[in-house]
Specification:
- By secondary structure, the chain is mostly helical.
- It contains 9 helices and no strands.
- Helix 3 (31-57) crosses helix 5 and helix 6 runs antiparallel to helix 7 (128-139).
- The chain has helices spanning 11-19, 22-29, 31-57, 68-77, 85-99, 101-121, 128-139, 486-490, 502-507.
- The relative contact order is 0.04.
Length: 514
């Protein structure tokens, strides 16, 4: 069990607490009240010192027979002597000085604000006095919310933990500044220079950082949720580990080579973003807009791209790894994924219409209800892939390997299956109607249970050990098929209306055609 460090009470928060207290109001407004309090403190202090001296010297003022009230009165009156006047005066002045420290502190804060305001009104951009005044104000816990110092020179300023909500720092020079744990939500930092700044756990929620330079900045755990970072520069950022970019506008940002591992980019706008050579492993890009993004050489292993928009995304085929990536519901229309490794990826309900997947590795991938209409899947590795209820209409699966694949209820209307392997594939309730050419296709051990093979041309196909339980073979062409047991065919519906070789018709005890 770890104990949380108590949060520091800011000066303005403490002032609000004091404003509600009658004692503090009297203390601030009345000088005589503070003088009276100083006299009381000084007298109590002298009384304590006198008591200690008497105890050390072994002297006693009170006798055994004296009452407690009489004893206390004796001790109090014993100090009212000429010898104690000087000590009492010094103690009173010291106590009053300490009590007046609040007033002096307030005066110092007002003077610091005067420096900040005067430099702002005079149009001075570079002022060491203003820089020091702002640091002093922050060190005193003074809120800097609403601060308006656009174009200011604040290089290497230390404003850690500062409250800069809705501050105007447009075009400010904040190179090497320390803004860790600061609250800049809703602030205007458009075009600001934050090169090398420490922004660890800084809050930029809803802030405007369009065109800002964040090169070399420490962005570890920085909160950019809902932030406008359009056209900003984040290349060579020191650390973006666990940074939050959810719902942020990052269009046009240069992330080339940036380590975004584990970053939260949910619903972020990443259109036309340069993510080449960047590390997006385990990052959350759910519902993100990646239209026209550059992904050359990016690492996307384990990345969550659920419902992401990837239309016109460039160089997806050169992505280093999409293995086990979550692309559920992603829009990959016409995406070029030729020879990309998508093994074990989640592409459930993804839109891959007209996508180029030639030679792609989709082993063990989840493509339930995926839209693969007119997709190019020639020579694709689809072993053990789940294509249940997937749309493969007019798709090209020539030479593809669908061994052990699940195509239950999949749509294969006008699909090209030349020399496709379906070894031990599950094709329950699949509609092969309108499929014309299946020459050299391997359906060995395939499960055609309840499949609609009406009119399908299975001539010369390997159907060894295939399961035709309740499959519809009406008008299907099964001539010249590889070695097959008649009992397999007899388990199908309308098998007597299919077309067979004369030898096989005899094995099925069907009338010979003349």
């Amino acid at each position: 069990m770890t104990l949380k460090r108590p949060k520091r009470v800011k000066w303005y928060q403490w002032k609000n607490i004091q404003a509600r207290s009658p004692l503090f109001r009297s203390f601030d407004k009345c000088l005589w009240f503070r003088i009276y309090l100083a006299l009381v403190i000084a007298y109590i202090g002298l009384l304590f010192v006198n008591r200690v001296e008497n105890w050390v010297a072994g002297e006693t003022i009170c006798q055994v027979q004296d009452t407690a009230l009489h004893c206390i009165t004796q001790e109090v009156l014993s100090l009212i002597t000429v010898d104690h006047v000087e000590s009492f005066s010094i103690s009173t002045v010291a106590a009053l000085y300490l009590l007046e420290s609040r007033k002096r502190r307030k005066r110092a804060i007002y003077e610091a604000w005067q420096v900040v305001d005067s430099t702002a009104t005079s149009g001075v951009f570079a002022s060491r006095a203003r820089l020091k005044a702002l640091q002093d104000l922050n060190n005193e816990g003074v809120s800097l919310d609403g601060l308006d110092i656009s174009q200011a020179y604040l290089k290497e300023i230390n404003l850690s933990g500062a409250n800069l909500v809705e501050a105007n720092l447009e075009g400010a020079n904040l190179q090497g500044a320390s803004l860790s744990h600061a609250n800049l939500s809703g602030a205007n930092l458009q075009g600001a220079d934050l090169q090398g700044a420490n922004l660890h756990e800084t809050n930029f929620q809803g802030a405007n950082l369009a065109g800002a330079n964040l090169g070399g900045a420490n962005l570890k755990c920085t909160d950019f949720q809902g932030t406008n970072l359009q056209e900003s520069h984040l290349k060579q950022a020191y650390s973006v580990r666990k940074a939050k970019f959810a719902q942020a506008n990052l269009s046009g940002v240069d992330f080339q080579g940036v380590n975004l591992r584990g970053a939260n980019l949910k619903q972020a706008i990443l259109s036309e973003v340069n993510l080449s050579e960047s590390n997006l492993a385990d990052a959350n890009l759910e519902q993100a807009d990646l239209m026209g993004a550059e992904l050359r050489g990016a690492t996307l292993k384990g990345t969550n791209l659920s419902q992401a928009y990837l239309v016109r995304t460039n160089h997806l085929r050169e992505v280093k790894n999409l293995r086990e990536a979550n692309l559920k519901g992603a829009n990959l229309t016409r995406a070029n994924l030729r020879e990309v490794n998508l093994q074990g990826a989640n592409l459930q309900q993804a839109n891959l219409q007209q996508a180029i997947l030639q030679g792609a590795n989709l082993k063990d991938a989840n493509l339930i209800r995926a839209n693969l209409r007119e997709a190019k899947l020639q020579d694709a590795k689809l072993q053990r892939v789940n294509l249940e209820r997937a749309n493969l209409q007019a798709a090209n699966l020539t030479d593809a390997n669908l061994s052990n694949a699940n195509l239950t209820d999949a749509s294969l209307c006008d699909t090209c299956l030349n020399q496709t392997q379906f070894y031990q594939a599950v094709l329950i309730r699949v509609d092969f109607y309108s499929l014309d050419n299946l020459f050299n296709t391997d359906f060995q051990d395939a499960n055609f249970q309840d499949a609609d093979l009406k009119g399908a041309n299975l001539r010369g196909v390997n159907l060894k050990n295939a399961n035709f339980q309740n499959a519809n073979l009406k008008h299907a062409n099964l001539s010249d098929i590889e070695i097959i047991n008649p009992r397999q065919i007899q388990a199908a519906q309308n098998y007597w209306e299919a077309e067979y070789s004369e030898d096989f018709r005899q094995q099925l005890n069907l009338k010979t055609h003349y």
